Amino acid sequence: MIKTENLSKQFGNFEAVKSLNLEVMPGEIYGFLGPNGAGKTTTIRMLVGLLKPTSGKVYIAGYDLEQAPISAKSLVGFIPDRPYIYEKLTAREFLNFVGGIYGMSEAEIERKAPGLLEFFDLKNWADELLESFSHGMKQRVVYASALLHEPKVVIVDEPMVGMDPRGARLLKDAFRDFAHQQGRTIFMSTHTLEVAEEVCDRIGIISHGRLIAEGTMSELRSQSRSAEANLEDIFLKLTGGEEDKELIQSLKG
């Protein structure tokens, strides 16, 4: 459903992403992890068409993003780490606006929007201006709008930012239903390793622009030679953070 071929991005002399090859299947929740500056956000911006690759290809459901951008983007719901919304609209008006962008009819929007607003606990706020919403509520509006056109692929950057525990649980349940019951694809970048370990079917770890490990938890344990390790231990070992952890422990001692 998502495929990249030797995807690379260079800023001047700095190569942020280096020959990245990914393949994410229908019905899969894929976690994309890496330290700060590893290339995660640059990769996501290329996947959704906000940034043009220096070289390489992105395919969404078989569509070449460069050659058929409208067809590819119409199948994607993108949720950035910061909610970008028109704050002078109500939640209902914002969903109407986004649905119109995706070519949905008024009848389609009216049929689907109320259920999403209710699911994300926004039913009682549907006609309030977004400028009065908390950060977490704004983020839930963005989720509702991204799912309105029933995309085949959802690409999420830091899904739990600003979410309270109830919102986070709703989101995890939505991800599982969306992928495992409806057969859609979720590509999720996060620093919250516990969430990635709990929710994701497969995980890719990027460091210095290169994919250094990929697989299920058992496969990652094998690759890191850590049979009983959790994702945090594996991540630190593969990205060099284990040395920092040991240094901190020695300073405490």
Could you list some keywords that capture this structure?
disordered C terminus; 10 helices; 253 residues; 24% strand; alpha/beta; six-stranded mixed beta sheet; Rossmann fold; four-stranded antiparallel beta sheet; 10 strands
Characterize the structure shown:
The chain is α/β, with parallel strands linked by helices and 253 residues long. Helix 3 packs across helix 4, helix 3 runs parallel beside helix 5 and helix 9 packs across helix 10. The chain is 41% helix and 24% strand. The chain has a domain of 176 residues: 3-Layer(aba) Sandwich (Rossmann fold), CATH 3.40.50.300. The chain is globular. It has 10 helices and 10 strands. The longest helix has 17 residues. The strands form 2 sheets. A 6-stranded mixed β-sheet has the order 6-7-8-3-9-10, sandwiched between helices. A 4-stranded antiparallel β-sheet has the order 2-1-4-5. The C terminus is likely disordered.
Question: In summary, what is this structure?
Answer:
The protein is an alpha/beta fold and 253 residues long. It is built from 10 helices and 10 strands.
Strand order of the largest sheet: 6-7-8-3-9-10
SSE order in H/E notation?
A: EEEHEEHEHHHEHEHEEHHH
The mean pLDDT is 90
Low-confidence sequence ranges = 246-253
CATH hierarchy, class of the domain at 2-75 and 151-252 = Alpha Beta
Supply the number of helical segments: 10
> How far apart are the termini?
49 Å
CATH superfamily descriptor of the domain at 2-75 and 151-252? P-loop containing nucleotide triphosphate hydrolases
The quaternary structure here is single chain
**What is the helical fraction, as a range of percent?**
40-55%
The CATH architecture classification of the domain at 2-75 and 151-252 is: 3-Layer(aba) Sandwich
Please name the CATH topology of the domain at 2-75 and 151-252. Answer: Rossmann fold
For the sheet with most strands, the description reads: 6 strands, mixed
Alpha-beta classification? alpha/beta
Q: Report Rg.
A: 19 Å
Overall 3D shape: globular
